[in-house]
Structure formats: C-alpha cells, structure tokens
Amino acid sequence: MGKRIFYFLLTNVLVLLTIGIIFSILPIGNYIGNDGQIQFGTLLIFSAVIGFTGSFISLGMSRWMAKKMMGVKVIDPNGPMNEYERAVVEKVHRLSRAAGLMHMPEVGIYHSPEVNAFATGPSKKRSLVAVSTGLLQEMDDDAVEGVIAHEVAHIANGDMVTMTLLQGIVNTFVVFLSRIVAFAVSRFVKEELAPIVHFIAIIVFQIVFSILGSIVVFAYSRHREYHADRGGADLAGKDKMRHALESLKAYTSRIKGEDDTSIATLKINNKRKSSIFSTHPDLDERIKRLA
Q1: Using CA atoms, how far apart are residues 40 and 25, in angstroms rounded to an integer?
Q2: Where do transmembrane segments lie in this chain (predicted)?
Q3: Active-site residue, from 106, 114, 138, 151
Q4: pTM for this entry
Q5: Annotation says 145 is catalytic
Q6: CA–CA gap between residue 223 and residue 230 (Å, rounded)
Q7: Are 92 and 105 in contact (CB under 8 A)?
Q8: Is 80 exposed, middle or buried (0-12, 13-18, 19+ CB in 10 A)?
Q9: Which of 33, 64, 135, 169 has the fewest CB atoms in 10 Å of its CB?
Q10: Which residues contact 149 (CB under 8 A, 6 or more apart)?
C-alpha cells in the first residue's frame, strides 16, 4: 500500500501546485476585497474547489501513474501466461470474487528485487493489483496469497476513495492557510514587490503545509492497514494472513542492515519503528492485533 499512497500524494501535490499556480495567474477566484483585505468566506470556497479538484484528479490518475512509474506489466487473463502470472491472476480473481467485487481488478507484475505489492485505482471497477517479482521469489504460496488478500481488501474497503475525500479536506486547509500566511508575509515588503512575494510565498507555504497535511493521511493509512489485515484474514484465512506477516518479519530480520527500499513488502514493515510519517504501523503490532 505504501507505493499506492506515495504516488497518490506525489500526484496530488503536483496537481495542487499546478491548479494553484494557474488560478493565481488568471483572474479567477479573487479573494482580496476592494479594501485590500482577505474575504475569508470567498477564500474558503476557492480553497475547497481547488482542494477537492486536486484530490479527485489525483485519484483518476492513480492507476495510470502507478503503471508508468513502476513499469507494471498488466497480464491479459485471456492470453498466454507463464506459471507465475497464472498463479497471481488466479489468486486475485478468486479473492476478488470472495470479496464481492463485481469487476475483476487488473493484475500486474513488475520486475523489482524489492518484496512489494500494492493496489490502486479510482474505483472498485477500475482497480489494479500489482506484485513484484521479488515478492513471488521470496515468499511461499500461502504468504503470497495472504499478501494479495490484503491488497484486495483495500479495494473492497474503498480505501482509495475514502483517502481521496480526506485528502480533499486536507488540501482545502493547505490552500486556505497558505494564502493567509502568504498574504501576511507580503504585507512586510514594499508595495511594488508585494504581488511577487505573495505569489512565491503561496507556492512555498503550499508545499510546506502539504507535507504537514500528509501526516493526517499517513495516520489514516496506518489505521486502514489493520482493517485490510482483518479483511485479508476473512478472504484468505487468518492462518495465511498471519503467515504472510510473519514471513515478512522473518525476511526483514534475515536481511537486516540493507536499504529500506529492498525490504518494504507492501511497505508494511520498516527496520525502524512506526513514526508519524510511516504509511504502515509496526509489523509486530499488526501481528498482535490480527491474533
């Protein structure tokens, strides 16, 4: 799930900046009154429009972005497949039917030594489950099924849509607060420089507040991981879900000392304890809660 969140947040920040810059250049959404003061009601509406537009555009691009950035090879379930591909497609489709999904997710594999998998997409109808070659090589069949069940549970739970709504609220406050602070900063410079300073300050503070706002999104992500674990246990069986988590723990212990990016299965485990910028809670805590 970490990959999914990373690309969603990255896309969101870029889209939000682009929309914000365009709106700042064009005479759209002017929230400065004739008296030179901020009209807070107008600014709040303006911020909500930009914020939710940015988050929904990011959601719409999420599946395409993940494919391009990760080099995911989408498997045609009706075409020729090798043993690995056939096994992954079978698991995704079987678990998706068990989860009550009416439309089967796209299934993909990408070449990477990292042990990882993710699910993304703008809706249950247009979703993607992708696994790395490293995951298929390192994990046994039951562990792989537990991992895939976890990702299918994210789709069935509608986590991407819920995250998009949360991100829209966060974006609204990011846009709102960045413009208030930028306006205040521009009051401390010469009048002829104020518009330039105001414009630059908006971009700077929007980036800063976006980073701070991501803490809220990360907290939601950690919370939803427990739900996806329970959903994965319901789909694949509690023993397989627990085995998947314990296999990840054993794997990370075995290669302790290597770079984090090579051991971040589902991005659900890091060598360090979970922090406010972690997308996943501590693995030991997840095993404990699942039990």
Answers
A1: 20
A2: 7-32, 38-60, 169-189, 195-220
A3: 151
A4: 0.83
A5: no
A6: 12
A7: yes
A8: exposed
A9: 33
A10: 95, 231, 232, 233, 235, 236, 240, 241
